[in-house]
Design brief:
The complex is a heterotrimer. Chain A is α/β, with parallel strands linked by helices. Chain A has ten helices and ten strands. By secondary structure, chain C is mainly alpha-helical. Chain C has a domain of 236 residues. The two termini of chain C are 33 Å apart. Classes of the chains: A alpha/beta, B mainly alpha, C mainly alpha. Chains in contact: A-B, B-C.
Chain lengths: 241, 340, 386
């Protein structure tokens, strides 16, 4: 395994009076796409939010590259090169597509070449460039959300359920986009329920249950082992189109 | 879209323009046209000053959900700070009859008021508001308490009595439109009101430009939608908020100076009295909306002048009635930007 | 018996019990313990405002509804009495019809406010009530042929409630606590003399009678509210306060409860306003409708302790004493700071509100449960030492 870009050790986190994470240990290899699987309520989204500093860590630490970023404020974590696409996508609906991207380019004006690359990945963004983002369709919003995350080179992408509620054709477009990002050596942590989508993209995989990691390994291994899938995820391969 | 169709849908598409047009037409039907014109210009002038006073409060609420009930104290503070420059420091220039010389007193007075209100706003945000983010009840309580303290401190510095403010020589009196001009010949327009309109429009234009065109403006609009996403993008929302709060306080101070010159007399509690109009303005416009704030201010200014002319005793009731009516019609205000 | 009277909601703190007893005894025997018109008006104000503030606490403390229209209802009660006696003469019939009219007006207005709160978000409600109360103030000020405008109205009370009425032939004996303490402090060697000097005589007139009417009314309303908040109704209110969404999900129509609280609180404020008019015998916008008065009610409620009702009693007593006597204290401090430029300004007798405002902000930060909450916290700690 390559050297990790991010590692969580013994992370505990509470939301209000509820203990959500009970000691999460997770290693994200550099330059790979890692899929985080698990049932609803297992703590996947909270894990991503905790990495971003949006949930307070009560115990354990988060290491990014060679730095302990536990307890850093969210903006500082973002500026250190981690982009986060939440499940709700967090599009600014009253802002235009262009304004959404202007904000996402934290370090100044957008790079033209990179913008052209994004337009090639997601043509609708060019079409609706000056329209309010709130008027985009669900799939287009997801495109914008991912475009925002990569408008500047980032080292690590955290993406929460990008395929949720999207049409198969659009899911395909997203998969192509992730392939391209992988080829650029961007490390990605993807939370997914869609196993086919995950299997196509993922190199390594981790499975969460009840606020802890219950399995970690390579995607190939999990994809070939129907019993393990059944045990960890309670589903048979292909049941989740 | 054909004009008739657009007009028919005006009340849903552009409720602020619809209401404005409705009010002006109703007033025109009941008031003699020349008087109506003077009242309208005066109403817009009052609206312009109200807009200066209210814009900071609406943005503060929109961005952070902070309801600053001490905003009125900043209006008083600005009024006193500005008046101090006018009366004590630059008495000679302010009394001079030449506009340019007067400006030597007016501009520093306004700047000084903005600086004082802005600085106090900085301290106030840090000491009073920051510890109670996210707790509406406590915000209401501490900002009411903070308002008492600020008003008391104003009394400590400037005394508890009313203070007369000389209006600069060149802004006294009125322009008389020459009788030769058709239709509006012979009407008198108070100079100061014209200045207020120009200044109010200039600030409104500047704010719209900042909000619509600049990166800071995009950031403010984004923050009104979602604080968390702004942080996820790598921006410290608190600094943004602090900037908006200080700017809003400074604008309240500017509005206070203008209002003081307009009234020609100040009391430490003038801010509290203005707060009612300010609150009506920001509710009318929709909390967090700059455009809404502007139209709300003009509507309040106009209804005050129109109703004040027809039946002076009912001006305040009409203002509040307008607010209640609009709330019944559109609970989020005329141009809503936040949904909670 | 006592427990039943307090609806099982005892003060639960030794110091608090002592403070409350002190307040109740001072109020119950007020005219017999504190001579002078200033003390008399302070006592009356405290009784009236215990009604006002505990009714306000029902909204603010128990339901977390922030309303700035409480003084409007207080003013309606006061002006109802003043205008009725002004127009119909000083009869009990005038008082009854004035009160009835005021209650009806308050009922209608509070119902409208309650309905409006359905249309708008909670935070709007505070602002809307502020604006409505202001509009009402402006109407009262403008309609001077009815209300006397800024000058206000004198209230002509029935003879039985005025100074001319003497139910007892002889003056009654009193024992001045204030004189006793002053004498003991200034001349500690002579306690007997101090005791003798403290005895005084006073005439029990209709004014004292009116005072006792207010006192018993205030006590009755307080005990009624205590019962109410400890009833199932009160528990629903607290559930709404903690989590309105959950209370709704449990099947409570929170709308009805909130509206009921707004109306009840308004009606009680109206009653308080009516008694204020009768005991103060002078009503103007400043002493009934002003925004500053509203802020004072808020201060009393918060400093005493929101959501405890006992906090209303403590808050009112403390605030009223501060309002009337803190100026004396500051005058005394001012004797020492005179000549020091800024300090002299800050400690001037008119600056009592500055210090109270500071105390208020600090108490919101550090003692969010107010004086009563703090007393109970201490008592709880002593009982369960950690």
């Amino acid at each position: 395994m390559t050297e990790p870009i991010l590692s969580l050790s013994g992370i505990r986190a509470d939301i209000a009076q509820y203990h959500i994470l009970h000691g999460v240990d997770l290693v994200i290899p550099r330059g790979e796409l890692t899929v985080l699987l698990g049932r609803n309520g297992a703590g996947k989204s909270t894990t991503l939010r905790t990495i971003m500093g949006l949930t307070t860590v009560t115990d354990g630490n988060v290491r990014y590259r060679d730095t302990d970023i536990t307890g850093w404020p969210t903006p500082r974590i973002a500026r250190s090169g981690i982009a986060f696409v939440p499940e709700s996508m967090g599009i600014f609906g009253l802002l235009t597509v262009r304004e959404n991207l202007i904000l996402a380019a934290v370090n100044g004006p957008m790079d033209e070449a990179r913008l052209d690359w994004i337009f090639a990945l997601f043509p609708p963004l060019k079409t609706f460039w000056n329209r309010p983002a709130g008027n985009l369709s669900g799939g287009q919003k997801q495109m914008l959300a991912i475009a925002r995350a990569v408008i500047e080179p980032r080292e690590l992408l955290l993406v929460d359920e990008p395929t949720k509620g999207l049409a198969p054709a659009i899911i395909n477009d997203l998969a192509d986009a992730f392939e391209q990002l992988k080829s650029q050596q961007v490390s990605i942590l993807l939370v997914e329920q869609n196993f086919n989508f995950s299997r196509r993209l993922g190199q390594s995989v981790a499975v969460m249950s009840d606020g802890a990691i219950v399995h970690a390994g390579s995607m190939a291994e999990l994809a070939d082992n129907a019993d393990l899938q059944h045990e960890l995820l309670g589903l048979a391969l292909g049941a989740h189109q | 879209m054909p004009l008739a169709h657009r007009l028919r849908h005006l009340h849903t598409d552009q409720p602020h323009l619809f209401l404005l047009a409705l009010m002006m037409i109703l007033a025109l039907l009941s008031i003699n046209p020349l008087t109506w014109l003077v009242l309208t210009i005066s109403g817009v002038a009052m609206g312009a000053m109200l807009f200066l006073m209210a814009s900071g409060m609406t943005l503060t609420f929109g961005l952070m959900g902070v309801l600053n009930l001490a905003h009125g104290a900043f209006i008083s503070l600005g009024a006193f700070a500005g008046a101090t420059v006018m009366t004590f420091w630059m008495a000679d220039t302010a009394e001079h009859a030449d506009l340019l010389v007067n400006l030597l007193a007016i501009v520093p007075a306004m700047l000084f008021a903005m600086v004082v209100a802005g600085m106090v706003g900085l301290v106030f945000e840090h000491l009073v508001i920051k510890p109670v983010y996210g707790d509406h009840l406590k915000q209401i309580l501490v900002t009411v308490g903070g308002s008492i303290i600020l008003m008391q401190l104003i009394e400590v510095v400037w005394g508890a009595n009313d203070m007369p403010v000389p209006r600069p020589e060149s802004l006294q009196g009125a322009f008389i439109v020459s009788d030769a001009v058709p239709l509006i010949g012979g009407i008198a327009l108070e100079k100061f009101r014209l200045v207020a309109v120009v200044l109010g429009l200039a600030v409104y234009g500047l704010m719209l430009w900042i909000i619509d065109r600049t990166r800071i403006g995009i950031l403010i609009r984004a923050g009104v939608e979602s604080r968390e996403m702004v942080e996820i993008q790598g921006y410290r929302i608190h600094w943004l908020f602090l900037g908006v709060f200080v700017a809003g306080s400074a604008l309240a101070g500017l509005g206070g100076t203008m209002w003081g010159m307009y009234q020609e007399i100040l009391s430490p509690h003038m801010g509290d009295e203005m707060m009612i109009s300010v609150i009506v303005v920001i509710i009318l416009g929709g909390l967090g909306s700059i455009r809404g704030c502007f139209y709300g201010a003009v509507l309040v200014g106009l209804i005050n002048l129109y109703v004040g002319f027809l039946e002076p005793r009912l001006a305040a009731v009409a203002t509040v009635g307008l607010m209640v009516g609009v709330l019944m019609w559109r609970p989020q205000g005329l141009i809503p930007v936040i949904k909670v | 018996m006592m427990n039943q009277l307090l609806s099982g909601d005892a003060p639960r703190s030794g110091i608090l019990t002592a403070v409350l007893l002190l307040i109740v005894i001072s109020l119950a025997f007020g005219p017999f313990l504190f001579p002078g018109t200033r003390a008399f008006s302070t006592l009356g104000t405290i009784c009236v405002f215990i009604i006002v503030v505990s009714a306000y606490d029902l909204m603010l403390g128990y339901t977390h509804i922030v309303s700035f229209a409480h003084t409007m209802f207080f003013g309606i009660g006061a002006y109802g009495i003043a205008m009725a006696t002004d127009g119909m003469g000083n009869s009990f019939g005038a008082i009854a019809s004035g009160l009835a009219g005021a209650l009806i007006l308050s009922l209608v207005l509070s119902l409208l406010l309650g309905l409006l709160s359905l249309r708008v978000r909670a935070i709007f409600f505070a602002l809307v009530t502020l604006a409505v109360a202001f509009a009402f103030l402006s109407v009262v000020t403008q309609l001077y042929n009815l209300t006397g405008g800024e000058d206000g109205l004198r209230v002509r009370v029935p003879r039985e409630l005025g100074p001319a009425f003497r139910p007892f032939d002889q003056p009654l004996p009193g024992f001045s606590v204030t004189r006793l303490i002053t004498a003991l402090v200034s001349d500690p060697g002579n306690p007997l003399q101090a005791f003798k000097g403290a005895i005084y005589e006073f005439r029990f007139t209709g004014r004292e009678l009116m005072y006792y009417v207010v006192f018993f009314l205030s006590a009755g309303i307080f005990l009624f509210l205590l019962r109410l908040v400890n009833s199932p109704f009160g528990r629903v209110l607290q559930a709404i306060r903690e989590n309105e969404f959950r209370a709704e999900a449990l099947g409570y129509r929170t709308v009805y409860y909130r509206t009921a609280v707004v109306i009840l609180s308004a009606l009680l404020a109206t009653v308080a306003g009516a008694t204020f008019a009768l005991i103060n015998r002078y009503v103007n916008p400043e002493n009934t409708l002003n925004f500053e008065l509203m802020v004072f009610i808020l201060l009393m409620s918060v400093i005493g302790g929101m959501g405890t009702l006992y906090g209303a009693v403590v808050g009112v007593a403390l605030f009223t004493l501060a309002q009337n006597y803190l100026q004396d204290l500051l005058r005394w401090v001012g004797g020492y700071t005179e000549g020091i430029p800024l300090l002299a300004q800050l400690t001037g007798p008119d600056r009592w509100l500055l210090w109270f405002g500071l105390l208020f902000v600090l108490s919101v930060y550090f003692f969010p449960t107010g004086i009563v909450g703090q007393f109970r916290l201490w008592a709880g700690r002593r009982r369960r030492p950690t």
